[in-house]
């Protein structure tokens, strides 16, 4: 593996590792992505789409609310309580910035050429990753 390829892969890895874990966690990302496409959604709708348990969904929503990314409201429809969730302004900006960054990272990753133009992409073993030379 060349130093140049190692630097490129290292930079990609650093970019991915630097993503906001509040958003990048799969369940929270799913919730925020659902809300990105709606003016708001009720708890049951989000639960059905994500497949999360009541406890897990409540936990993730609480973390998102604490981070200021969503607002949670409760009201009654007849005698039935309904919980609604909306993105806050900060939440809208944050999820849009997240997806732009993911698109940028993906685009950069696809653009980088392999070391040899006609060589198939290879995988690198531990020895190559740590700069060991073959026998």
Key phrases:
135 residues; alpha+beta; three-stranded antiparallel sheet; Arc Repressor Mutant, subunit A; elongated
Explain what the structure shows.
The protein has 135 residues and is of the alpha+beta class. It has a single domain, classed as Arc Repressor Mutant, subunit A (Orthogonal Bundle). Helix content is 58%, strand content 13%. The protein has 7 helices and 3 strands. The protein has helices at 3-17, 21-24, 26-36, 43-50, 54-66, 89-111, 126-129, and strands at residues 41-42, 70-77, 80-87. The protein has a 3-stranded antiparallel sheet. A hairpin with a 2-residue loop joins β2 (70-77) and β3. Residues 115-120 and 123-135 have low confidence and may be disordered.
């Amino acid at each position: 593996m060349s130093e140049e390829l190692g630097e490129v892969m290292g930079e990609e890895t650093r970019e991915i590792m630097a993503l906001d874990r509040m958003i990048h966690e799969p369940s929270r990302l799913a919730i925020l992505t659902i809300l990105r496409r709606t003016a708001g959604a009720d708890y049951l709708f989000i639960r059905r789409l994500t497949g999360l348990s009541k406890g897990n969904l409540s936990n993730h929503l609480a973390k998102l609310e604490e981070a200021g990314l969503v607002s949670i409201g409760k009201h009654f429809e007849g005698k039935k309580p309904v919980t609604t969730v909306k993105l806050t302004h900060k939440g809208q900006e944050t999820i849009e910035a997240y997806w732009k960054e993911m698109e940028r990272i993906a685009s950069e990753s696809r653009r980088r050429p392999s070391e040899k133009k006609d060589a198939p992409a290879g995988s690198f073993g531990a020895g190559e990753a740590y700069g060991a030379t073959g026998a």
